[in-house]
Amino acid sequence: MSAGKVRIARRRVDGMLLLDKPSGITSNAALQRAKRAFRAEKAGHTGTLDPLASGLLPLCFGDATKFAQSLLDARKEYIATIRFGIATSTGDAEGETIALQPVAFSRADLDGALLPFLGRIRQVPPRHSALKHEGRAHYEYARAGVDIPRLARDVDIGAIDVLAFDLPTVTLRVECGKGTYIRVLAEDLGLALRTCAHLAALRRTASGAFRLEGAVTLAALEALDPDARDALLLPVDAPLAGLPAIAVDASTEAALTQGRTAAAPEGMQGPCRCYGPGQRFLGLVDVAGGILRSRRLTRTDAQPVPSSPFEA
After folding, report:
1. Are 16 and 62 in contact (CB under 8 A)?
2. Which of 73, 118, 158, 166 could form a disulfide with 175 if both were Cys (CB 3.0 to 4.6 A apart)?
3. Do the Cβ atoms of 76 and 212 come closer than 8 Å?
4. β-pair partners for 82
5. Do 248 and 165 have their domain in common?
6. How many domains does the chain have?
């Protein structure tokens, strides 16, 4: 350790935080600042936001990181500002201008152009993305000027609402499934309207059951005293809020923690949140054919967890 540098004493922190990430920093940079604020031993985020983007970034600490995948797979909602008439090298405002085209379409034209983008569609990932090709991220190839194959993927867009129509910009609310690139939607929409476009701004407003209104900014988080900061943490089971819950007795809890199966409550099927005596959260379990199996459990030495706000 270099002279003058103070080592931060880390501590165990279990729970989930709803963070309002600012524009201009990476998701990992935001995560590291929050981790330092809590002095947490272990933390992870639940779905990357580009540096340009702001908004809801759920962060998991300690045992909650075991269940982060549920939010990675969750549906998202965004407010997207699209600038028509200008195409950029990255598809968003961070790239260099590569094309200029006139913008001459009506609100009715926009409404009609949006219809083919609803539902299950095929989307080609952008050149500048974190997707991997032969072990390297797409953006690494793009920065090196190397073209690689980018295969179209199925994505699902559940809703697109026009919030503002003020050409050359349009603001949309987009509700979509995992893997949807809003900057690709912006570029494709520009082509559909016989011009070009890029994503000028993006703000995530929802992830699964959670909304931006419940999030805290980094500046506010760092200004709080430790007790007030800890009070913002949601329980360890928060990432699984959308799943049904199962309550089990002490013998079933023992079987699950020892890696054995048990009889499942009648009528349950698929992944479920599981709670033992005293409503203690045990973890994620699977139910199939009347049999209960553990998938991912909390640590056996887990600290007491507050009662979940998500009723069983």
Report:
1. no
2. 158
3. no
4. 170, 199
5. no
6. 3
* Active-site residue list: 50
Domain interval for residue 58:
15-74+210-230
The answer to the question of residue 236 being in a domain is: no
Residue of 254, 271, 216, 236 lying closest to 22 (CA atoms): 216
- pLDDT tens digits for 92-110? 999 999 999 999 999 999 9
Question: Which of 112, 128, 140 has the alpha carbon at shortest distance from 198?
Answer: 128
For the chain, the residue count is 312
The verdict on residue 93 lying in a domain is yes
pLDDT at 203 exceeding the cut of 90: yes
How many whole angstroms separate alpha carbon 64 and alpha carbon 44?
A: 9
The full 3-state SS of 26-53, as one line of letters, equals: CHHHHHHHHHHHHCECCEEECCCCCCCC
- Whether residues 146 and 248 share a domain: the answer is no
Alpha carbons 165 and 184: distance in angstroms, whole number: 19
Q: 12, 65, 15, 68: which is closest to 40 by C-alpha?
A: 12
- Which residues are 59's β-sheet partners? 17, 45
Q: Are residues 259 and 158 in the same domain?
A: no
60, 141: one domain: no
Cis peptide before 277 (omega within 30 of 0): no
